[in-house]
Write a structure and sequence with these properties.
Oligomer: single chain
Mean pLDDT: 93
Strand order of the largest sheet: 3-5-2-1-8-12-13-11
Number of helices: 9
CATH class: Alpha Beta
Bound molecules: Isopentenyl phosphate
Radius of gyration: 17 Å
Largest sheet: 8 strands, mixed
CATH superfamily: Acetylglutamate kinase-like
Number of strands: 13
CATH topology: Carbamate kinase
């Protein structure tokens, strides 16, 4: 159960939404700024845990040093620092925009407080710290990260995994994925003009649709990985909504529990 007084919502801001994925370490500041204001307004109704993706502040760096394959030589270790600098730079930008929007936020970096083991799928998250922040009315901010792993040296933990795990463990009412598209489509809407958006998505539908979006540059499985993760939350009774963060007030509406006109709801 949530320890917070109000309904708890976990918000995942997609890396493709808040960064230019094709241009290394480039922020989409106007979009981020507006989204932070929407979070700020929603805080009068719900408690929020914010998780963001790494976008071009993490994926190109991980790919460059092949960090997603674990540590095999010393040169790769340099990539650890390079990637952390990039991800933390984005995290600071998110915090600065939250601050400007009047949100009191606390960054929680998994790399500093988690030791993972590849023998387990699960990564233990610092729930006590997050619960305490919520209790104090502070918004915990997490992001896709690199953590030290007992067997492989390092492990990439996606923001999607973090958001899903938190929504289940904290008993969140809702999990909102803010995307750079309106929802989940029958195929990639950026490539196929006939792609149809699905207002409801069931696990069975996954066999009938083609999910190519973002997979090429994404070291954490892109859209398909996101949806498979998200179904875990839906199957634990969390309401899961995929919504465009490009449309004004859609994230705000999803946060406070008003279904925006266009979005995809996962049906467990
Ligand atoms: O963008 C990936 O997190 P994501 C984290 O949420 C790194 O998949 C370091 C690439």
């Amino acid at each position: 159960m949530s320890t917070a007084r109000r309904p708890l919502v976990v918000l995942k801001l997609g890396g493709s939404l808040i960064t230019e994925k094709a241009r290394i370490m480039t922020l989409r500041r106007k979009i981020l700024k507006r989204l932070c204001r929407e979070v700020s307004r929603a805080l009068s109704v719900v408690d929020v845990v914010l998780v963001h993706g790494a976008g071009s502040f993490g994926h190109p760096q991980v790919k460059m040093y092949e960090l997603d394959r674990g540590i095999r030589n010393r040169h790769q270790l340099e990539g650890l620092t390079v990637t952390k600098i990039a991800v933390e730079t984005l995290s600071i930008e998110v915090l600065k925009e939250l601050r400007k929007a009047g949100v009191v936020a606390m960054p929680i970096h998994l790399s500093s407080c988690v030791l993972s083991s590849s023998r387990s799928e699960k990564v233990e998250l610092p729930l006590d710290i997050i619960r305490k922040c919520l209790e104090m009315g502070v918004v915990p901010v997490l992001h896709g990260d690199i953590v030290i792993d007992e067997e492989r040296g390092i492990r990439i933990v996606s923001g999607d995994y973090i958001a899903v795990e938190l929504s289940i463990s904290l008993g969140a009412r809702r999990l909102v994925f803010a995307l750079d598209v309106d929802g989940i489509y029958t195929s990639d809407p950026k490539l196929n003009p006939f792609a149809r958006m699905l207002t409801e998505l069931r696990r069975d539908d996954l066999d009938r649709i083609s999910l190519g979006m973002g997979v090429e540059m994404d070291v954490t499985r892109g859209m398909k990985g996101k949806i498979l993760e998200a179904f875990r939350a839906a199957e634990h009774g969390v309401e899961v909504i995929m919504v465009s963060g490009l449309r004004k007030d859609y994230v705000y509406k999803a946060l406070i529990g008003e279904l925006p006109e266009r979005c995809t709801r996962l049906v467990a």
